[in-house]
Specification:
Length: 276
């Protein structure tokens, strides 16, 4: 998660509450997000558990735990896993097409999410064909296990997070998934990913960690990824240097903003919409 330093606190809370307006600036924030590589978020599940070093300073957890025990607050249960069936059909009501990051406050392949609930989430994404949905997981094994039983329409992008070389095998599991776009989020980047193979990968997002305990990213790790992407024909997106606040270090890498976007591969998806 990434917020600019100037975002009002009311906006943050309204955003996470999925309410209509920020009490501080009156902006409509229900489905907006400041995450640079998407346009909106949808959280049919909230809460999670840590699985690898990239989770150490999980912003979603920090945010959710602030409200643990607050009666009536959407995060009254803190960061404990919670299904929100009443949010399932929200994207079907958003008529304007947009790119939607699914479960920014959880991990859709968390083992506590029942298979049939996951299936319903995927059915909504298939039905809401005018949007593009982006899913990101660190549960690569469950993703690969369930993928053959899930619909993979052309508007679904699937990604895995890889923070250091110990987790590059997540890309191998992702390669088994017939998503129109397969992407890697190397954020927070905690080490060199020189052993990462990019065959069958369409997009790579890289970035440094932000927050009071951020672990610094090194420029040679980023240049290495950028150059590997260029050699493999993979779109490269540099999100941020990170630091005390997400935008404090800016987005320039060697004096350039890297905001490349991928093209969906029409040979992969398993669901074809009927014409008309
Ligand atoms: S998998 Fe994602 S949401 Fe879950 S704890 Fe780790 S960083 Fe947070």
């Amino acid at each position: 998660m990434a917020w600019g330093g100037a975002v009002p606190e009311g906006c943050r809370e309204a955003y996470y509450r999925q309410s209509n307006r920020c009490s501080a600036c009156r902006r409509s924030v229900r489905d907006k997000t400041p995450i640079e590589w998407t346009e909106a978020t949808w959280n049919p599940v909230t809460g999670c558990d840590k699985v690898s070093p990239g989770c150490a300073h999980c912003y979603a957890e920090t945010f959710a735990e602030r409200f643990r025990g607050v009666p009536g607050h959407p995060y009254e249960q803190g960061f404990d896993l919670k299904l929100w069936p009443d949010r399932l059909e929200a994207p079907l009501r958003w008529r304007r097409p947009r790119t939607i990051f699914v479960n920014s406050m959880s991990d859709l392949f968390h083992p506590g999410i029942p298979d049939d609930y996951l299936q319903r989430v995927f059915e909504v994404m298939e039905a809401a064909h005018w949007h593009v949905f982006q899913i990101l997981t660190k549960r690569h094994e469950r993703l690969a296990e369930l993928a053959p039983d899930l619909p993979w329409p052309s508007n679904l992008w699937m990604g895995v997070s890889i923070e250091n070389r110990r987790y590059v095998q997540r890309a191998d599991y992702l390669r088994k998934v017939p998503a129109a776009v397969r992407f890697i989020s190397a954020e927070p980047l905690l080490g060199s990913l020189e052993t990462l193979h990019l065959e069958g990968i369409d997009w790579l997002i890289a970035g440094g960690e932000s927050g009071p305990h951020h672990r610094p990213v090194r420029v040679d790790w980023l240049r290495q990824l950028r150059d590997m992407c260029a050699q493999s024909g993979v779109a490269f997106f540099f999100k941020q240097w990170g630091g005390r606040y997400p935008k404090v270090g800016g987005r320039l890498l060697d004096d350039k903003v890297w905001s490349e976007k991928p093209s969906p591969d029409p040979t992969r998806w398993t669901v074809t919409r009927p014409a008309g």
